[in-house]
Amino acid sequence: MGDVCIIGIGIHPFGRTEGMSGVDQGVFAVREALRDAGLEWKDIQFAYGASEAAGNPDTMVDRLGLTGVQFINVRNGCAAGGSALFSAQMAIKSGECDIGLAVGFDKHPRGAFDAKPSEYNLPEWYGEAGYMVTTQFFANKIMRYMSLNGISRDTLGRVSEKAFRNGAKAPHAWRREPVPIDVILDAPMVSDPYSKFMFCSPAEGGVALILASEKKARELGITPIRLKAATMRTRPPGSFEVFAPSVDVERGGTATNIASRDAFEIAGIGPADVRVAQLQDTEAGAELMHMAENGFCADGEQEKWLAEGWTELNGKLPVNTDGGCLACGEPIGASGLRQVYENVVQLRGEGGERQVPGSPNTAYSHVYGAPGVSAVTILER
């Protein structure tokens, strides 16, 4: 059979929207995606929906229409949206359906995520030591990585500076003001080495993607974006992940290593073929580590990449062109789908001020979640 295609996209702006629930924002995104594809809700044969804290996605049918559509809820940490997309494309690849929906939304309260050790099969001492607080864990993780690979704190600052500069050009972003690097570096410290501008914030928002078989896209007369690969993988032995209580001396890679490797194999391309990438950046160091884990550079090379501007909009591999999680915030259910939304915008050439030059034809997205799960997608125009 042909490729699975993305034929419609919709987004509700990220940030804080008083008076709208997470479900409201998801419904808004679905209606935008239907409008984009020229379809009606009755045309949708199935849906996978992701939300962590804002209710069950399948309740959206009360607003969208009681058509009896198959609607399955997905909950998989920060990789929930990517997992919903993975599931949706599998339903089309199987031949069971030829048009469906992946949707994600969330509405988180202010403050850091507050997970409990028991939810992740961890001992109580792990929480008592403070490692269930994600800001503290990720600070420890990047400190280790910086020490092992010669990464400076200035490079963390450059990641955040780029994020806010790109976010200022993205209508759906939350943080839409550039922040100078000296302000980023000198801002109040949250968890050393991270200042307050180096972490994303829990947020609100919704994203919807309409998927179809290649045959169905042709019947509808829609020029599609092809989903060449979608993978979702869990962690191997010895990986050092959020909500994992230790790091082995001998490591067997990471969930991201596996998801990335398999996605490239399925798509039949390599990292050098990618023209734009959206990488999980819940904190500035995550973008750096994920550049290497996804195969775009070696550990330690990020220092040069950021100093030389290679991840800027006009660089050799633009990364997080809409500002990523740092500028957009992270509504867990929607965040991974936002990355794919942004890649579709870039491949269509509709990015406006943030458009990557040269008509990119291949785009990559990666999302990472607890307790060490990753999802990767590769799109082609």
UniProtKB/TrEMBL annotation:
Fetch the Pfam families from UniProt.
Thiolase_C_1
Q: Name one GO molecular function term.
A: acetyl-CoA C-acyltransferase activity
Segments forming domain Thiolase C-terminal: 254-378
Q: Which Gene3D superfamilies match?
A: 3.40.47.10
Span-the-membrane segments of this chain are none
Q: Which InterPro entries match?
A: Thiolase, Thiolase-like, Thiolase_C_2
Q: What is this protein called?
A: Acetyl-CoA acetyltransferase
